[in-house]
Amino acid sequence: MCYESDAVPPVHGAAVTPVREAGPLVLTAADGTRFAAFLARPERPSGAAVVVLPDNNGLSPFYEALTERLAEQGHPALALDWFGRTAGPDLRDRGAEFTEPGNLLTHLMRLSPAGLDADITAAAAALRDDGDGDGGAVGRPVIALGFCFGGRQAFRAAAERFGLAGVIGFYGYPDAINGSPGPTQLAGDFTAPLLALWGGADEAVPPAAVAGFEQALDAAGCRYRSVVYPGAPHGFFEQGAADTAEACADSWRGVLAFLAEHGAGR
Question: Which CATH number is associated with domain 19-262?
Answer without folding.
Answer: 3.40.50.1820
